[in-house]
Amino acid sequence: MVIGRLMRVSLRHYLGGGVLWVSIFVIPLLTGLVLQALFDAISGQREASLDAALWLCAAFVAVELLRGGVFWLAITVWPYWWNSAETTLRTNTLRSILTARGPAASRLPHSSGEAVARFRDDVRDLTMVTDNMVDLIGAFLFTVGAFAIMASIDPVITVVLVFPLTVIAVLNRLMRGMVARIHRKARQLGAAVTSFIGEMFAGVLAIKTAGAEDAVLERLREHNRRRRDAAVKDRLTMDMLDTATSATVEVSIGLVLLLAAPAMRTGEFTVGDFALFINYVAWLTMLPRILGRMLYRVPQGAVATQRLSRLMATHEDADDLSKRNGVWLKEDPPPVRTHVPDHVDPLEVLKTHGLTATYDGAGSGVHDVDLRIERGSFTVVTGAVGAGKTTLVRALLGLLPLTAGEVLWNGRRVDDPGTFLVPNRAAYAGQVPRLFSESLRENLLLGWPADEEQLAAAVQLAALEDDVADMPEGFDTVVGSRGVRLSGGQVQRATAARALVRAPELLVVDDLSSALDVQTEQRLWDRIADAALHGDGPSTLLVVSHRRAALERADQIVVLDRGHVAGVGSLDELLRTCPEMNRLWAEELVVEAEEL
Ligand SMILES: Nc1ncnc2c1ncn2[C@@H]1O[C@H](COP(=O)(O)OP(=O)(O)OP(=O)(O)O)[C@@H](O)[C@H]1O
């Protein structure tokens, strides 16, 4: 099914290239016939003049040139189909990850190495099966043609030749499973080395500060040793299989010689016939080899389809994986334009009922949370370390799957918060910010259509304007891993600015305390509150914080304790009624006094 659709992503090129590849497999039939005539002419077994022999030589060269020409054409046409197929698979997977309903993060594998491997290796495996179908057809046609020609010359020798070819097929069948296992292992261990090197580069500072250079290098050597052993084993098995196949070809040639000798003496089997048989025998090993390859490629393709489909939205399947989506191989694709969505249902009140989100069925997470966030209000979620604050806001925004409960926007149930609570309804500045190796402007906008004035206003609200002024090229400074390194605080304020430039109705900010000192945080909330008052900023705020600057300003505070709501109310109310709030408040007073 997937294979059929994959052929059709660029059917013209698949059919065109396919015919060319099949021709490359079939043309050797002609070579054999020319060789037969040529050797018969040379050995005098056929009446022929010198001219005729020369013409046959020329024909031989012409056939080989034809094959070379067809090969050149095939390798020119085929990449159009191959790249269209790979691109289609990758873009469909990406599209699904980025736009599907439900939290995408829960579908992604934990290690980025694994995700990259799926995009690279699984896509390749699936394309390869479709590619190999053409080889199979070519090898099959050649085999049928060759057997027909050989049987017309000598049926007995032809039938005997089936035996060594069957040996090759059986050998391939028996060994392919093992070869595939060894190959997979080598690939996994190769990926482990790449992944380890990636982590090592990312954690250079941590390694140095822990004095772990030698230990890390030793671990890398260990990974490398395992990869090398597996790679050697992989190469060796492949070579063994090839050697066995070549040996079978030699045996076949011997068999032809043995059986043809008596007939050659009587002239029934000519030197030309012998040349034809020898020429075909080498090519005949293709079919059992390709069949053997297909026998493990097809299940591998099925596994690849499953693994890629698992990355996609739950309602999508293999059909969506190979759906045609427009591939631009020659010209640039049309520019992508992000439109500011025109939502017709402005926020009045956002509620949750019995919101529960737990991790892998474990007890940790948040349980049974009822929230009511009015338009224009400032809500603070607070609690001890690990109380579930981040889990609560992420579950509310649909970034984590809900175990139970519901989210209501203006009283209407939100089916999929992950695709509903997005800019410009809501924007989120997370606790673990991510910057790309691009200019600061591109990092803040990420394609959002805002003008310079809106950008400057967002930066001002996020208290980042002085930092931008100090950067060598202002907004055009390249930041992130390949650019100017920003401080942790700058990165978090940049993330807040990214959320603010989207002019959301609801701004959700997860704990800025590590990014801002007490006074700067105070200034930031002052600015945002002022902007809200004048209609220049988000009207409604949901903030994770334990800082006084936020708690004192809050219209309501939600206190979490080990995943459960311990109290909801204003600071004064909670200080009167909620022991957990009292404990947190007392701790915060001490911490801030020390900081000041
Ligand atoms: N991906 C995860 N898998 C399993 N458990 C998790 C995961 N993320 C968080 N937890 C657990 O869920 C609980 C709540 O974590 P959460 O990050 O929501 O707490 P928090 O209040 O935001 O903490 P902090 O103040 O440190 O940010 C913790 O016990 C944590 O160990």
From TrEMBL:
Cellular compartments annotated: Cell membrane
Primary residence: membrane
Domain ABC transmembrane type-1: 22-300
SUPFAM superfamilies: ABC transporter transmembrane region, P-loop containing nucleoside triphosphate hydrolases
CDD domains: ABC_6TM_exporters (cd07346)
Endoplasmic reticulum as UniProt keyword: no
Transmembrane intervals: 20-42, 54-81, 138-171, 243-263, 269-287
Alphabetical list of PANTHER family matching this protein: ABC TRANSPORTER, ATP-BINDING CASSETTE SUB-FAMILY B
Name of the featured protein: ATP-binding cassette domain-containing protein
Organism annotation: Phytoactinopolyspora mesophila
